[in-house]
Specification:
2 copies of one chain form a homodimer.
Chain A lengths: L2 E2 L14 H7 L4 E5 L1 H9 L5 E7 L7 H4 L8 E4 L1 H8 L7 E6 L6 H6 L5 E7 L4 H13 L4 E4 L9 H6 L9 E3 L3 H10 L3 E5 L5 E2 L8 E7 L7 H5 L2 E4 L11 H14 L3
Parallel strand pairs in A: 1-4, 3-4, 6-7, 6-11, 7-8, 9-11, 9-12, 10-12
Antiparallel strand pairs in A: 2-5, 3-5
Protein name (chains A, B): RNA methyltransferase
Keywords (chains A, B): Methyltransferase, Transferase
GO molecular function (chains A, B): methyltransferase activity
Chain lengths: 266, 266
């Protein structure tokens, strides 16, 4: 049964207070998910435990079928728009929020060793933009990537906006962090992955690449790209572009490369 | 010589007043470009006449070399941040703005007849999101598309944010509007273009498509997609995706398709 909240200061909904300010600080053990598409994935497909929901009264009916999948001990709070906006701190047009617990990040070696013999993995180095990381997760899900590896400088896929841009894929595609870019390459090579680094200076052209059964695609930030010592240790691939124009957005690049690597030779 | 403006009410810089409010209304004969990368393309590669510039004092030096290309009768206004922010109506972090005149949109038949025998063209149907249109122009430039055609429902590529997301490509890739999606297909077929419509229900798979010398790629909005009668009259192509996940972003889709169409068979 939904619990109607009428007082914006009700301590029950403390977790939903000042969402943006807390986004900036970062949440250690929890994350916030918003919107209907993301909520449905969170309840149906993801590995995260939901702690509570906060719904605008007029959104309750549209997600009622999905709420049946929720354990009865998870509180569903409802509020009118004025109370919801006051608690959250800005107009929350989608009217749907959830708080869930982060899952422990597995050691990269364990994660890779459990993957099937044919697998595509994405590795992100220094990607500090939430839109790009969200977009890459969306593409990773669309092309069936088995996992995403993040270095320490890559931003949090469970940041609210990254989840939204990923259309919920950040909740679905398994990911973990590694200590450094070097450690990422080492772990991938130890697990028999052919490591493909995308770079404007790449020696092979993407459209000619025949992927191996286990292939990892490494992507760096748009300005600096991937470090030279990493390129020296991996298979470097470029996407030829028309003369003189600025390079592609990195999320678009991930889509182009994942499309090729998941379809080439099939 | 730059003209220092100290009074936010100075009528010289009227064109820069309340930028966001005027963005929403739309500008009939002019557009606003912002940021250094976009300014450099506007001055160097684009077909648009610049009317004036407004620069934060501390940005003047960083673009001094590009300003040499400017006709001496184009005024360059400078202001400190406080004056600039007051005029514009919000903090303009990039500190670089230009006002330029729109160019007349050529009739689609004229535009297509002037293209070379080998050409890739993009057609957009009902794309109302400025980020997506900007991203598609960026990809069109990266893969050497010769032109972009827009139906009446597709938003303005010269909207400030669309230009920014395109990294200036909206100023460089030629475009025009057509009366309807039907008229677009007709004009393309009259000009001997093989019209490829991307759709989840497409009969061919993108990675197997061998493009013709003159190929046009049609893209529709993420929800509704392209209309059924248009699909019936064109070559329909799909991008296979992993089971059950939401479709790709349309800008990413354009990058994947343009990459394939510009490299297949080469």
């Amino acid at each position: 049964m939904p619990i109607a909240v009428t007082d914006p200061d009700d301590p029950c909904i403390e977790a939903y207070r000042a969402v943006r300010e807390r986004d900036l600080v970062g949440r250690q053990h929890r994350f916030i998910a918003e919107g209907e598409v993301v909520l449905r994935l969170l309840l149906k497909q993801s590995r995260f435990r939901v702690e509570s929901l906060l719904l605008a009264e007029n959104r309750l009916e549209s997600v009622a079928d999905a709420l049946n999948q929720l354990s009865p001990d998870v509180p569903i709070y409802t509020a009118n728009r004025a109370v919801m906006d006051t608690v959250v701190g800005f107009p929350i047009h989608r009217g749907i929020l959830a708080v869930a617990q982060r899952a422990p990040l597995p050691p990269v070696g364990d994660m890779l060793s459990r993957l099937p013999e044919t697998a595509l993995v994405v590795g992100l180095i220094g990607l500090a933009n939430h839109d790009n990381v969200g977009g890459i997760f969306r593409n990773a899900a669309a092309f069936g990537a088995a996992a995403v590896l993040l270095d320490q400088e890559t931003c949090d896929p469970l940041y609210r906006k990254a989840i939204r841009v990923s259309v919920g894929a950040a909740l679905v595609v398994p990911f973990t962090r590694v200590a450094s870019a070097d450690a990422m390459v080492q772990a991938l090579q130890d697990a028999s992955f052919d490591v493909v680094s995308l770079s404007p200076s790449g020696r092979e052209i993407l459209s000619h690449v025949q992927p191996s059964r286990r292939t990892a695609l490494l992507l760096g930030a748009e300005g600096p790209g991937l470090p030279a010592d990493l390129l020296a240790r991996t298979r470097t691939v470029s996407i030829p572009m028309s003369g003189g124009f600025d390079s592609l957005n990195v999320a678009t690049t991930s889509g182009i490369a994942l499309h090729h690597l998941s379809t080439a030779g099939r």
